[in-house]
Design a protein that fits this description.
mainly alpha, transcription regulation (chains A, B), 2 domains, homodimer, DNA-binding, TetR_CgmR_C (chains A, B), Tetracycline Repressor, domain 2, TetR/AcrR family transcriptional regulator (chains A, B), HTH_TetR (chains A, B), Arc Repressor Mutant, subunit A
Chain lengths: ~180, ~180
DNA sequence: GACGACAAACCGTCCGGACGGTATGTTTCG
DNA sequence: CGAAACATACCGTCCGGACGGTTTGTCGTC
């Protein structure tokens, strides 16, 4: 903190702003809307400034992946730590993080962008694979219903992402309850 | 000389070839790989010839959407007609069509491409919405478990699409059974 | 069924603009 | 000062799309 104090422009803040705008553009305009010009302009930085933080476009997308994956891991770990019951802990955390009960919180929009990014750039799918490999809980020694629940959550996620006509709030609540009931315990 | 491919004479064949190659490129190279040059070359037609069938790139993607949505509808209807039990018919057909039990059949690769296209081009999401609106079965008056099953199928679909480490064949079979068991009956 | 007229299918080239990336100047902090 | 953190200007390439021309099929007429 000492080195960032009183600095006119905090590079870390610029970097975060850049990543946030990248995610937003990815969601709203699609992958084709993510150009270096558009990102830099949206983030309130010049193109050169953007390229100072990320040497090229691939590095930008990689940076987005890193950031979002890390925040996703953190959110999962947080939820799991708060769950006293060991069994099905991961599945419940997965539900809580991916299936927003009361509206969309901060950061979740970004995770949607992550999906868009992975589908857009085949290169990132490779990174997804190694990420999954790094998470023992995801590897499928889990009980069948745990898998089922996680896949259902992913499906809801995709549906929300595509903006398809969604469930009513009442349905969402009931679905959440059902998902938790199906989780191992 | 009689060309191995369609030299001329069958515009419909050219059109289908173009759409097939568009879908393939979309899956393999991602949205950025779908250029008019790449599509025309892959389909064995000149750029001018491609633009004769589809006046611009948007029309090409729209054409792909139309084609795949239509084939998806047909596959669903086929499956539903073959199901003697009325209750849960739609859900079971949805499972059968979207969750390939024995390998990937023809056309299913294309449906994956459809997902990629919709995620890439925000414009197509609008079309998805109206498509869903046109299908009474999808509108969510369905029982909770029917929704759950469909979302789970979508999740598996997404997972396959991203090439994430998937289930073992045995797990897939068990999952299929479980999904059908959860379907309304 | 031969023939000419017309339309559809298709080709090859060119252009304007956008996009990723570079090279270099300018400011700000330690 | 010196280095990090930007900004400005610019370059080469690629992409979407327009355009004119060429070949192939179709159809009416006799």
């Amino acid at each position: 903190m000492s080195n960032s104090r009183n600095r006119r422009k905090h590079p870390e803040a610029v970097r975060r702003e850049v990543l946030a705008e990248t995610a937003r553009l990815l969601l709203e305009k699609g992958p084709a809307g993510v150009t270096l010009d558009a990102v830099s302009q949206a983030a309130g930085v010049s193109k050169g400034g953007l390229l100072h933080h990320f040497p090229n476009k691939l590095a930008l997308l990689d940076g987005l992946f890193d950031d979002l994956a890390h925040r996703f891991d953190q959110a999962l770990a947080e939820r799991m730590a708060a769950d006293p019951v060991e069994k099905g802990r991961f599945t419940r955390a997965y539900i809580a993080v991916c299936f927003p009960a009361g509206g969309v919180a901060e950061g979740e929009e970004g995770w949607k962008a992550l999906t868009v990014a992975m589908i857009s750039e085949p290169h990132l799918r490779e990174r997804l694979r190694s990420w999954v490999d790094g998470r023992a809980e995801v590897r499928a020694e889990a009980p069948l219903d745990a898998l089922l629940v996680r896949y259902a959550v992913d499906g809801i996620w995709l549906s929300d992402l595509l903006g398809a006509p969604s469930m009513t709030p009442a349905q969402r609540a009931a679905m959440m309850e059902r998902l938790i009931a199906l989780s191992p315990s």
